[in-house]
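Aim 2, interim progress: modelling of the nicotinamide-adenine-dinucleotide-bound target.
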Amino acid sequence: MENFAGKVAVVTGAASGIGRALALNLGEQGMKVIASDVSAEGLEGTAALLRGNSAEFISHLTDVSNADAVDELAERAFEEFGAVHVLCNNAGVSTIGRQWELTLDDWAWVLGADLWGPINGVRSFLPRMLASGQPGHIVNTASMGGLMSGPLVGPYSVAKHGVVGLSKGLRAELHDTNINVSVLCPGEVRTGIVPGIRRRIASTGAELSEDARLTVDYLDASLSASMEPESVARMVSDAIGDDRFWILPNSAHYRPILDTEFDEMVNSLDASFTE
Ligand SMILES: NC(=O)c1ccc[n+]([C@@H]2O[C@H](COP(=O)([O-])OP(=O)(O)OC[C@H]3O[C@@H](n4cnc5c(N)ncnc54)[C@H](O)[C@@H]3O)[C@@H](O)[C@H]2O)c1
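Predicted structure of the complex, ligand included:
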C-alpha cells in the first residue's frame, strides 16, 4: 500500500510495546490512528504520545477476545474516519506452564487474545474494508513461536501457529483484491509481555514449577536486552509499503532450529501411494 498520509490505521494492543510503537509510527507517517487496548491506563499513555506528535487519533477500549467488542471497534472506526486502510491485529498475552497443568481459563485467556483476537479482527473489519473498495493491508502479529514450538508456552504456541495459518489462508483468499496481508513473527522484542506473564501468574495464584520460574526469568532477561519495538514498527510499515507477507524481526538466530524442523518434516514426506 502506497501513500500512508491521510489514511486510517487501527492497532490493537496499542497501550504498550509493539502496538504502541506501531500506533506512533503510523501516526508519524500522517495516518489517522485508532489505538485500542484493554488497558485504559496504558492507552492514556499512548494517547499522550500521539497527542505530542500532533497525530489525529481516537482511543477505544476493546477486549479483542470479545467478538461484539471488536465489532463495536470496527463500527466506531468506520463511523469516525469513514474507512480503515491498515488493521494491525496485534494484542497478545502469554502464560507459562505445562500444557496439561494449565487451567482451562489459562488456555481460554491466551487463545482469546492471541488467536480469537485476530479472527475477530478479520471478521469485523474485512467485510467493511472490502465493501469500501479502498486499498488496505492487514497485519497479524504472530511470533517465531508460531513457526516452532518449545516447552511451557503451549497456549501461546498453539495460538501463534493459528495466526500464521489464518494469515496464509487470508492471503490466498484475498489474492484478487486490493487488500494485502502480512504476518509479523518477531523473535525477542523489549516490551511489557513478560511483566504481563508475571501479573497473570500472580493473579491466578498458580504455583510455578522450578523450570517454569527459570523460564520466566530467562525470558525477562533475554527480552530486556533485545530489539526495541520501534525497530519492529519500522519493519512493519516498510512491509506494508512494499506489500510483503513475512515480517520476521530479530529472527536470524532461529535459522538452525527452523532448518532442522523443516528437514525433519520434508524428509518424512511419503510418496508410497503416488509412486
Ligand atoms: N515481545 C516479544 O518478544 C514478542 C515476540 C513475538 C511476538 N510478540 C507479540 O507481539 C504482540 C504485542 O505484544 P508485546 O510484546 O508488545 O507485549 P505488551 O505486553 O507490551 O503489549 C501487549 C498489549 O496487548 C494488550 N492486550 C492483552 N490482551 C488484550 C485483549 N484481550 N484485548 C486487547 N488488548 C489486549 C495489553 O494490554 C498490552 O497493552 C503480541 O501479540 C505478542 O504475542 C511479542
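The chain has one domain: 8-263. Residues 12-13, 15-19, 37-39, 42, 62-65, 90-93, 113-114, 141, 143, 186, 188-189, 191-193, 196, 223 surround nicotinamide-adenine-dinucleotide (CB under 6 Å).
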